[in-house]
Write a structure and sequence with these properties.
Oligomer: heterodimer
Helix content of chain A: 55-70%
Number of strands of chain B: 14
Helix content of chain B: 40-55%
CATH architecture of one domain in chain A: Orthogonal Bundle
Distance between the termini of chain A: 59 Å
Largest interface: A-B, 35 and 48 residues
Mean pLDDT of chain B: 87
Structural class of chain A: mainly alpha
Largest sheet of chain A: none
Distance between the termini of chain B: 53 Å
CATH class of one domain in chain A: Mainly Alpha
CATH class of the largest domain in chain B: Alpha Beta
Largest sheet of chain B: 5 strands, mixed
Strand order of the largest sheet of chain B: 10-9-11-8-12
Strand content of chain B: 15-25%
CATH architecture of the largest domain in chain B: 3-Layer(aba) Sandwich
Amino acid sequence: MSDTHAETVAFVQDTTIPPAPPPAAETGIVKWLRENLFATPVNGLLTIAALYLIYLVLNVSLPWIFGGLWTTTSLAECREILQGKSAACFSVLTERWNQLLYGFKYPAEEYWRPNVAFVLLFVAAAPVLFFDLPRKLLIFTGLYPFIAYWLIWGGSALIPIVALLGILGGGLVYKQFVKTSFAAGFFGAIVTAFVIWIVAGMLIPENASENAMLPAVPSRDLGGFMLNMMLGVTCVSLSLPIGIALALGRQSDMPLIKWICVIFIEFIRGVPLITLLFVASVMLAYFFPPDSTVDLFLRVVIMITMFSSAYIAEVIRGGLAALPKGQYEGADSLGLDYAQAMQLIILPQALKISIPGIVNVAVGLFKDTTLVSVISMFDLVGMIRGPILASTEWNGVYWELLGFAALLFFVVCYGISQYSQWLERRLATDHR
Amino acid sequence: MKKSVFFGALTLAGLGAGVAAAGTLDDVKARGKLNCGVTTGLVGFAAPDANGKWEGFDVGVCRAVAAAVLGDATAVEFVPTTGKTRFTALASGEIDMLARNTTWTFSRDVDLKFTFVGVNYYDGQGFMVPKDLGVSSAKELDGATVCIQTGTTTELNLADFFRANNISYEPVPIETNAEAQQQYLAGACDVYTTDASGLAATRATFEDPAGHVLLPEIISKEPLGPLVRHGDNEWEDVVRWTLNALITAEELGVTSTNIADMGAAAGSNPEVNRLLGTEGNLGEMLGLPADWAKNAIMAGGNYGELFEKNIGESTSIGLARGLNAQWTDGGLIYSPPFR
């Protein structure tokens, strides 16, 4: 049987055929190119056109950037050296580097103070941004605003300490009374804080700032990218809690609270930010007596915070509306009170939905801080448009300065955007 | 409507409070610092240098006033203002005086309730065009696009000039001089119009200044000068006579180099003696020390020295004295006598 069979079959493969490499057109970079860049004739044409365009841009910009001068002292000198060749005059960045970062009036020997505050900002922000870190770090986050204030503005250390004591006192009172009645805790805390501030404020001697460890720097002397960072960080971190409160207030059953929130949000959203800034800088000066004006920086922070909290409130209201009604009812059926329901069930879900919108507002707000240049505060753009371009040495340098500003803003805004995407992935619970 | 009436009333109340307050001179002395409004940056007139020190022609006036009142030319808080915020800053009392190349006009003097204490630069509005445009007179500019700074008198002058000559134009509104420069060079407008001093300064920074011409027409009078609030005549006198002291010093040949000798003891020229306080009591009349004018002149030199150092022909801006020469040299700069 087997013999017969052996004669009928001429050849039997007794090993497996070794796997052949895929055809050249189906592997590696060729495949990637074919599938992504040259899939159809039209795609191929577009690819070639795009490559040509990129070549055109780089052909001009790369020599311009790499041929740039860094050590001259004026634009005229740059032009003399370049002899009509096209190249950047980056010397303006090196010569005015400190002005671009700190403004033109911040005392040079004190630059380390904003630098330290900037580094500490990351330490303080880390536990808020990355919740895998030990929770104890949040204590430092709570202290950070006072430390940063003391570092940047200097003067008597008593001022931030008193401010901190007022808030701590208010917090203690709130904790004591909130169990009996929320209103008693809330208003008691506010009254306590003010009492501490006023009493302690009277105890601080008039000339406490004169021989302080860190010389005082008035707000008027702040400037440059430092000012943008300060406005951006302060306003974003203040407007988030205020925005949440406004969003919840707008959903409230109590008519007074509801209408206050609705009118505030609709009014602020109906007014351009630049108008609010003009009000802050120009109109308020009429209402206060000349000697006792509220600090301009504070006025601007209040206006920008109001503006962005109205927007954030609407974003969060969108998140609240997206939750099915069952979530609210489920919370009620568990016997949770309003604060617990919001804290444990509603807000975690609503805020997660709102992340892209909140980040959108935050990025927009950060870029809007450049608007303060129109009320003659010297932020990064204000420095460029005003003093630097008006100096006899650098009048006429545009691409280098504005490109540098764009780069700084891009780095920060792209960072925010990347963080939010990481946060969305980290919080994604639905598709596991 | 109701709201605007309400805010108007509040504003008036605020203004009234400002006027009723103590004299500005006493305020400045008590504060030990002069709050002086300047521009956020205009080449030659006011701009901070790499070390943050303000320099320029208008800045020189601020320093002179500070030196006259406080004896210290550095006791000035420079408050940068834009074209839109400058008048509210002055009216609200945020600044004591404004030296921000501001044109003296009827409505600013009368309606906005300011007092111009004099003229430190006689300017006029001119036009700059690229040479390739082949235009030799502003009257040939029919249909041209014109870059113009908003919120300034130049905007109104331009409309008047084109209407009077029955030709049309298309305005390209811009905010700052720096922006205008870029728009003009990029070809967004055929013509750039602003004060002739500004045009000269702008052209000096171009890569190819010879490729642009200033047209011969000067279509407006732009007397630029420092100003103060209405209703405080003592302070007004101080600022006015400080400016006059700088002008008179040039006329009498008192410079920052020879002032130490001339002011040390009474000399042969009685007007110099009165000016420098070695004779008479002019300072006392102003409520200032006898050497007020001497301090003001030592702060940055006399009028001519300030001009030469900041905007004169030796600088990159290269403005000729022209109308701003002393009256003895055929210009308009003229100070009433010190007696």
